[in-house]
Amino acid sequence: MKRQLILLIALLPLLLAAQVGDLPRSTPAQEGISTRAVIDMMDSLMALPNCDIHHVMVLRHGKVVAELHPSPFRAEDAHTLYSASKTFTSLAVGIAIDENLLRLDDRVLTFFPDKRPDSISDNLAAMTVRDLLMMAAGIKPDWRLRDLEKADWIECWLAKPCDEAPGQHFQYDSMSTFMLSAIVQRVTGRTLLDYLNQKLFGPMHILQADWEMSPDGINTGGWGLRVQAETMAKLGLLLMNKGSWHGRQLVSADYMEEACSPLIYYKDRKDTDVPTDGNQGYGFQTWRCKWPGAIRADGAFGQYSVAVPEQELVVVILGMIPNGHPELACIWNQLMPGIKSDGPLQPENKLQKRLDRLCATAALPLPKGKPQTAQGNQILDMVMQLDSNQHDYKKLAITHDGSLLITYNDGFQDPLGCGYGQWRYTGMIGFPPYSINAVNRMRDLKHDFVAAAAYAWTSPTTLEVKVHYVNWISSTTFTFDFGKDEVTMCDNFPGSEPETVHFVGLRM
Which sign does the torsion angle of CA 443, 445, 446, 447 carry? Predict the structure, then answer.
C-alpha cells in the first residue's frame, strides 16, 4: 500500500468504530454471581506484576455482567490476538467441512499439487487436515518461516522433513494453522477472512475484523487476526453453545464437540502431573483448562476467550502478560467460587456501585513527574537527529503543541499528541512495534492504528513519554536524557531489549 494512501486514511476521522454493546447487559447478582467475586477478580488482574490488562469481559447466561477497559484502552478498540486467531481458523475449517468442501481425513498434499516437493516421504503423504488441526503434523516447528518476506510459505513448509508419523505427537506450530488457512482458501476460492465474513462474522454481527497476510496473499491463520473484545466474547459464547448462535447452527455441533475435546497431549505428559492450564489437552485449535470442562482460545501475551459451559460462563481477557497463565488463575481463584446460583441473588447495590466505579476509573500507569522544567522549555521544537535504530526513526522532536513528532527514514511523520496526567489519542501513519518480524505483512491490515501518549519530566533533564498503541497491543516508553543527548526506546514485549540511541539536537 502506498504511504500516500496510508496518509490520507490516517488523517480521516476515526471512521466506523465497529459495534460495541451488541450483547445484552446485566449485573453479576442478577445472573447468580457474587459481585464481590467479580471485583476481586478485576482487582487481582490489575495487580498482576509487570502486566498490562487492556480488556476484560465477564458473561453469564449470554449477558455481559461486567467489563473493564483500563484507560487508555477503550471498548471499541480492536486488539491483535496472536494465537487466539487459531480458534477462528478452526471454525472456518468446520464450516467448510459442513459444506462438503473438505473432510478431516483429506490428505494435505491433495490440496497443493503445484507445491509438492520433489521427494515425498510416507509421513508427508499421510498427513491429513485432522493432523494439522491437532498440531500433530509430524514436521518440526520452525518459527523462522513466518518471517520470510518473499518466500512461498506453502512450498517452504512442505519441503521440510516430516520426521514423525502424523497424528502421533503434539508439536505446537503456527505454520500448521497457516496451512489450514491456505486449504480453506484453496477449497473456497476466498481468503479465510472473506469466508468467515460471509459464513460466521456476518451472522454474528461482527463488523470489525482484519487479518495479516502472507507474502503471497493468504491470511496467516495461526496469528494476526485483530478484533474487538466483544467479538472474543461472542467467540466464547459460540464455543459454549457448540456452534449455535441465536438458534442458528453456524458450525455443526459434531465438529464443535470434537474441536473442544482433549484430543492430544504433550508427549511427555504423565497422568500424575499436577493439573495446569497447559497440560489438560488440545482439540482442534482450542485448549482445555484445568477447571473441569472449561475450554479456551489462547494467544501469546495473554489473549483469552474462556468458556465454562457447565456454568454458562465466558470470560475474555486481552492484554500484555509476560508469561505463564497468572490471569487464568484469577478466574479460577477469585471468580469461580463466587458463582452461587443459576438464578438471581439478592441485589448488591453498594458492591455494584463499587464495581461500576472500578470499571469506569481503571487506568494503566501514567508517567510521573513535572509538566515542565527549564530544560524542557529549551528543547521545544528542537529536532533530534537519531543514530540508526531498530524502530526506523530518523528524527524526533517535542513540539510547542505538546506532540512527540516522529520522522521516519522514508520522510513521513507522525505527530503523536502527548498529555500530562492524561492520555491524548492520535491516528498514526506509521506502524506499532511488533514482536514478529512482519512489517510488510502489517500493511495488509486496515491502517487505522491509534496511539495514546502521555509525558512527564522525571528529573530536570529527563523526559519520559509513554505511548500505548491502543488498537494493537504494544507500547513504547521513550526516555530522553538531555544531559547525555540520548534517548532510550523500550517496547513492552517480553524479551524486547531497550535501545539507547545518541542524538544531535538542531533548532527547527
Answer: negative
Pairing of strands 450-459, 413-420: parallel
Measured between alpha carbons, how far is 464 from 449 in angstroms, rounded to an integer? 22
List alpha helices for 197-263, DSSP H. 229-240, 253-259
Beta bridge pairs of residue 488: 479, 500
- pLDDT profile of the chain (508 residues), mean per 10: 45 50 97 98 96 97 98 97 98 98 98 95 98 97 83 94 96 97 98 98 96 93 97 98 98 98 90 90 98 97 97 98 89 98 96 98 97 90 94 94 94 96 96 78 82 97 97 97 96 92 85
Q: Please report the pLDDT score of residue 14 as a whole number.
A: 41
3-state DSSP call for residue 138?
Answer: coil
Do 467 and 479 touch, CB atoms closer than 8 A?
no
424 forms bridges with which residues in the sheet?
A: 453
Helix (H) / strand (E) element for 209: namely none
State the pLDDT at residue 257. 98
pLDDT at position 143, please? 84
Q: What distance in Å separates the CA atoms of residue 305 and residue 296, rounded to the nearest whole number?
A: 5
Residue 11 pLDDT? 40
Q: Which of 454, 460, 455 is nearest to 481 (CA)?
A: 460
> Can you spell out the DSSP letters for 90-137?
HHHHHHHHHTTS--TT-BGGGG-TTS--SS--HHHHH-BHHHHHTT--
d(CA 27, CA 15): 31
User: Under DSSP, is residue 416 helix (H, G, I), strand (E, B) or coil?
Assistant: strand
Contact 265, 285 (CB under 8 A): no
CB contact at 8 A, 260 and 285: no
In terms of DSSP H, where are the helices of 53-102? 85-98
What is the identity of the amino acid at 189? Answer: G
Q: What is the pTM of this model?
A: 0.94
The per-residue b/e assignment along 244-281, b for 16 or more CB within 10 angstroms, e otherwise, is bbeeeebbbeebbebbbeebbbeeeeeeeeeeebbbbb
Grid-cell match 468458556, residue found: 307
CA distance 222 to 85: 6
Contact between 135 and 283 (Cβ < 8 Å): no
Q: What is the pLDDT of residue 438?
A: 56
Whats the size of the chain, residue-wise?
Answer: 508
